[in-house]
Each structure stands twice: as C-alpha cells, then as structure tokens.
UniProtKB/TrEMBL annotation:
PANTHER family for the chain: LIPOPROTEIN YIAD-RELATED, STATOR ELEMENT OF FLAGELLAR MOTOR COMPLEX
Alphabetical UniProt keywords: Cell outer membrane, Ion transport, Membrane, Porin, Signal, Transmembrane, Transmembrane beta strand, Transport
Name of the protein: Porin OmpA
Residues in the signal sequence: 1-36
Domain OmpA-like stretches: 262-383
One Pfam match: OmpA
Chief location of this protein within or outside the cell: membrane
Length: 383
C-alpha cells in the first residue's frame, strides 16, 4: 500500500567548519606578504572582474526527517547526509571610492541532499541545488597599503531545483519542484592587493533560499578569489622640488612674489611646514610660515591648492596614514580661517610614504630625519 509523505521543517544553517576552511586558505594569502611594497589597496575608482572558488555548506535537519519517517510507519536505520559541495561565483563591478563598490555576477553553490535507510526499504532520498544572479553593495575598510576588510549585502535571483525519490512506498511527486525567486545575501571577507592590478580575496557569504519543501533556509559559501582591476585611478604624488631640511636647520624661505603674470598653467611649491611629534596641531613657527603663504594665495585667487600631509616612520602604517590626513586638514582649516575659500583646497595624506629624509632607525623618535618627515607640503596650480 502506497503511503503519502511530506517532509517538514528541513532547513539549512551555517556550517561549523568555517574556521577549518578559513585556516586552510589563509596561508595562501600570507604567502604574498613579501610583495607588500608592490601593490596598493587605495584604488579610488575603476572597473574590475573576478572569480571565487570554494566550498558551499549546509546543515540538514536529520532529526526532523527521522521523526517524520517514523510517524509515517517506517523504522529508520540511518540517514546519510551530503552537506558539502564545490561552489563558485563569477563577477564584475565598479569601484566608486576607496570605501564602496557595486558588484554583480553569477553563482553556483552545487547540490545538497540526504539518503534515508529504512525498514521496510523505501530508498528515500532528497537533494536541492542553488544557483543564480546577484547584485551586491560592497563596503571596504583599508587597514594598510595592501590589506582591507570587506562587508557586503545584496539581492539574489535564485534558481533552485528540488528532487525526491523512493521505490514507490513514499509519494514524492508533490515535493519535486523547480523555482525562481528573489532573496538576499550578505558576507564578510578580507582582501590583499598583490599589485595595482591583482587582488586576492578570502570571503564567507550566506545565501538565503527556499529549501527542499519551500521553507526559508541558508547555504553558505567559503571561497578564495582573484580580482583583476582595470587601470583604476588613484592619487599619486611626486614632489616637484626637494624638501627643506628639518625645522632646526631650515633657512628662511625666499620671498615669493605676491602676484604672477602668466599665460600658461604654473606650479608653485611653497615652503613646507612641520609638526611636533605625534600631533596635528600647528605650532607658532608653522603659523608664521602659513600666514606668509596666505598673502600669495589671496594675490592669486585663480590658484588651486593641494595640501599633502606626511609623518615619520615610527608607529603603525595605519596610524601614520590617519595622522598625515589630520595634518593636511589642520593646514587647510587654518588657511580657511585666514580668509582662503575652502573650495580651492584638496587634501591628501601619505603617511610615512615619500619621506623627505631616510630614517635609518625609526625607533629614534626625534631624530633629524624624523623631524624632517613630520611635515605638510603643498603646491599651487595657477592658470
């Protein structure tokens, strides 16, 4: 006699193998650490393409399957699960800034399923697969010149296929389905810039789906990927004149003409200003120099100004980057308070990059070289 049977509450949740998968992939990322000076993760804008390959996982509620089979008159010997599969995604996107990108692509997480051994023998099996298209908003937080952390949230157009089978003792026809529907996804990851063009990613993502009989479930993808960036734009700075020595030995700057008469764009590199150790506050000597620059800027109202902040080599790279940005903003704030229009300025921080002098011993916090590097440098473009 044929018995009708419908599974209930078969859900998929996050795998307990997250740490195992990440730990197995992380050495591949660290192997590129020797290339730390060849790449940068400060690309501002541009297109990119990429591919990730890894393991998709799911947890099947075997207890619920067991109970439902017993309630239908079967003695259950065991339930074998197939909860891991090869998964991948292909994608393209556009980086709008160093913090945000939009990314879309195709994913295939493979198939998950189970096989129940019962008495009388039912040969009862079930499996489901998930693939589809996605569109994600990706947030990125740079940690250094090469490392960043990622967070993403997006929508997916899923295509899932569910199939049950038995030897006829269980009616499975009603549960077989193939459907297309919209869900959401989210994830976290880290990435390492091998070079300006290539980036290595390690990611963990959760995809929402309709599971074997229409309930809401999850499938997870833990993957390693490679991204290629197409000539993204980033800010480069090459000093147009040799920097002055440290404040203790610098000679007074030569007088700068209050006005320029020119028919071609010209670039003026004004005297750089210096800061005390581990601070973005302007000292008295710095303000004197800046007030001399104010006269030049007011005499050339058509000029645009770029201010670059720098630091010495002591301290972490991330801390020095933030300090250099504060120093550039501190100079801008002072010049605005002296009557210069804020719209004429662009500020940028270079941290400990492009030093004025080489620091043989960064641990010597107040060496002459360190003092020379704790500076703000800016140039004026006159059209």
């Amino acid at each position: 006699m044929q018995k009708d049977y419908k599974m209930k509450n078969l859900t998929m949740s996050k795998s307990n193998n997250t740490l195992l998968v990440i730990s197995s992939c992380l050495p591949m990322l660290l192997a590129f650490n020797s290339l730390a000076n060849t790449g940068t993760d400060h690309i501002e804008q541009g297109w990119f393409i990429g591919a990730n390959l890894g393991q998709s996982t799911a947890n099947i509620d075997s207890d619920s399957i067991w109970r439902n089979l017993e309630n239908s008159g079967f003695a259950v010997n065991e339930i074998n699960e197939d909860t891991r599969h090869l998964g991948y995604k292909l994608y393209t996107g556009y980086t709008f800034s160093r913090y945000f990108a939009l990314e879309g692509g195709y994913f295939d997480l493979g198939n998950m399923g189970f096989n129940a051994t019962t008495s009388p023998v039912s040969d009862y099996t079930g499996n489901t697969g998930l693939k589809g298209w996605n569109l994600d908003l990706v947030g990125r937080l740079p940690l250094s010149a090469n490392w960043s952390v990622l967070a993403r949230v997006g929508v997916t157009q899923n295509k899932s296929k569910t199939r049950f089978s038995s030897n006829g003792l269980i009616n499975t026809t009603a549960n077989n389905q193939q459907s297309s529907y919209t869900k959401h996804k989210y994830g976290l990851g880290v990435q390492y810039a091998i070079s300006d063009a290539f980036v290595l990613r390690l990611e963990a993502e959760r995809y929402r789906m309709d599971d074997l009989i229409g309930n809401i479930g999850d499938m997870d993808l833990y993957s390693l990927g490679l991204v290629y960036r197409f000539g993204g734009s980033k800010t480069h700075y090459v000093p147009t004149a040799a920097p002055d020595p440290a404040p203790t030995t610098r000679q007074p700057a030569p007088a700068i003409p209050p006005a320029l008469v020119t028919t071609e764009p010209a670039v003026l590199v004004l005297e750089d200003v210096h800061f005390n150790f581990d601070t973005a506050e302007l000292n008295a000597n710095t303000k004197v120099i800046l007030r001399r620059h104010v006269a030049t800027l007011k005499a050339n109202p058509q000029a645009r100004i770029r201010i670059a902040g720098y630091t010495s080599a002591s301290g972490s790279e991330a801390y020095n980057q933030a300090l250099s940005e504060r120093r550039a903003e501190s100079i801008k704030t002072f010049l605005v308070s002296e009557g210069i229009n804020a719209n004429r300025f662009k500020t940028i921080g270079f941290g400990e990059r492009n030093p004025a002098q080489y620091e043989a011993k960064p641990s010597v916090l107040r060496s002459d070289a360190a003092k020379a590097n704790m500076r703000g440098l800016f140039e004026i473009i006159v059209e």
